[in-house]
Amino acid sequence: MDEVELDPRRHFSQTETTYAWLLQGGICPICTRKLDRDLFDGDHVRPWSKGGRTAVDNLQALCRSCNIRKGNSMSPIKDLPTVKVKLSTAPTRTWAQKALRVVASTSDPVLIEACPGAGKTRFALEAAARMFDSGEINRLLIVVPSRRLVEQWCEASTGVGGGASIPLAPSTWRHPQPMPDGICGGVITYQSLFAQPNWWAAFAAEPGYRALVIFDEIHHAGTESGWGIASQEVFAHWAKRVICLTGTAFRTKDQMAFVRTVAVDSIERRSVADFTYNYGDALKDEICRPIYFEHIGGTATFQVPDGSVQTVTTDDDLNPRGESYRLRTLLDASGGHIREMIDVGDSRLARIRATGDNDAAGLIICIDCDHADAIANILTERSGVRPVVVCSRSNNPDDPIPADGIEKFVGGSSPWIIAVRMVSEGVDIRRLRVLIYATNVIAELTFRQIAGRIVRSDTNNPEDFGVMVIPSDRRLQTMADHITGPAMVNISGQLVQTASRSSYESIEGLESYGSFAPIDSTGVLEFVTHSDGRRAPAELVRLAALHVERTGSPVLPFEIAVAALNDPKIEESLRRSLNDPV
Predict the structure, then answer these.
(1) β-strands 432-437, 501-505: how paired?
(2) Of 221, 242, 277, at which residue does a domain stop?
(3) Residue 86 burial by CB count (10 A; 0-12/13-18/19+): exposed, middle or buried?
(4) Of 277, 297, 329, which residue is a domain's last?
(5) How many domains would you assign to the chain?
């Protein structure tokens, strides 16, 4: 066989490739997609290794995925690699079975709304495995909010706990790195998607592949995020199937290509799920643990923009600006209110640990990194040990890198972790039992996601429940009271107040100019509510707690307090027992 004479120039120049791309109108001749120039490579029509010349008359611009698949052959499509996918071996929860039927009944994008702790990840992987098994898809791309969730999805895809097993690329994989042999997809962050949407559209549309795209916490994909509706529509066109997941209904200012929305008002729209499984449903099915909400009331003293000093209680009716001032003051680390919240939370955690859950932990969600550091200092004063602080910016050189800190906390026994956003939606730390809501974000989606950190049940606990300590703010009270039902549409987005100087409406409704500044606050436990709607005043809860401490009763103080509230004889017995000798 004669030796092939190779062109001494191996590669086409960028200018030549751009020339071909322009002649082709930006369209790949193999997959017919119209893509940006930086997604194309110059390709030899007759392969260079077979004597093809590196000249314009032997040049075509191919999208990168088609060029890789073509290789040095004249045929663009090679045999696709085979992958081994296994369906779940563990029983599928009833809600998931119903949701799977919804997914199977259509080829359109679907939105599955299931509360935190219900098992959305396992459900979605089972749905994907069934599509692989039927031949409907042969590629999977999962998009998540954070690197931590990339790792969690990759771990879950290995079939842990009897779930579906799907061979995904390791969490360190980045497109356009070659897909490892035997691998059928990968997990990326929304940040990666927004940075290179056409790359990922090309990944989903690669010739020969039928891709399922799973969007975890789909509200991150709203066009407000910078991912334009046009890019969403391209993705929706090229993906074979799309499954969207969310923990609760959400609001957005724009329509979304993958989610049906309805107008709430002239500005905002609300998501409409194809299947809904809320926290109330999960409680009935005993999938999630109940929550006790400890409401901390008190007073707040702050300077308003006109320079005057105001002192208000948590019971006072204020306009939205006044409510914002009050909440920000209650949460200020120099005041007494936040210390009372920490005292209550720490004492509840100590009792939970003392009654059998030895590695139970607490989470404090703060306003920002400076606030987190100040709260950590308070806890350090109490115990002599600094809690784990995971923030994007650290004020203390001893604080860990966030990812390392979370990883160590998950497998350790430290009692407290403090965060702003790092421990949020989807982050699974099963030993969390107590939560202190020390952020001034007033948004139902955020409230439910944060509450979701403590609802994951653990059958090993003798009494499995969560405790959430919140300021006695009417908006937070409303969210707590309605947590088991559908998300409300009348509670809007974030209301965040900082100590900046600007023009404000005063708490009396008058326009003024100046600086807001928190001065001081006090805190006292006012009442306790249960996620099932029951309520008990703090005085009876304290009496019941003392009774439990003295007698060793296995009944929770809240349950005794509720019984006493409905039966004067029990209340009388509680008060009388305090005077009895031990």
Answers:
(1) unpaired
(2) 277
(3) middle
(4) 277
(5) 4
pTM here is: 0.78
Written as six digits, the tokens of 522 are 């006090």
| Residue at 282 is within a domain | no
First to last CA, the chain: 104
What radius of gyration do the chain's Cα atoms show? 29
Residue 273 and residue 316 in one domain: no
* Shared-domain flag, residues 241 and 388: no
Report in angstroms the alpha-carbon separations of 345 from 414, 416, 454, 510: 15, 10, 13, 38
Long-range CB pairs of 478-481, under 8 A, 24+ apart, other chains included: 479/444, 479/447, 479/448, 480/293, 480/295, 480/529, 480/531, 481/529, 481/533
Residues 545 and 442 in one domain: no
For the stretch 482-517, pLDDT in tens is 999 887 644 333 333 333 333 344 444 444 456 889
My answer on whether 332 and 476 are in the same domain is: yes
Distance in angstroms (rounded) separating the CA atoms of residues 215 and 190: 9
pLDDT bucket at 2, cuts 50 / 70 / 90: low
Question: Cβ contacts of residue 467 below 8 Å, gap of 6+?
Answer: 291, 292, 294, 345, 348, 349, 352, 433, 434, 435, 454
Peptide bond into 197 cis (omega under 30): no
Same domain, 435 and 503: yes
Give CA–CA dist 237/229, Å, rounded. Answer: 12
Residues 524 and 565 occupy one common structural domain:
no
What pLDDT score was predicted for residue 208?
75
Are residues 237 and 309 located together in one domain of the fold?
Answer: no
185: containing domain = 94-277
219 and 258 part of one domain: yes
The predicted-structure confidence for 241-296, as pLDDT tens digits, reads as follows 999 999 888 877 777 778 888 888 888 888 899 999 999 999 999 999 999 999 99
- Give the integer Cα–Cα distance in Å for 149 and 358: 26
Average pLDDT of the chain to the nearest whole number = 86
Residue 458 has pLDDT above 50, yes or no: yes
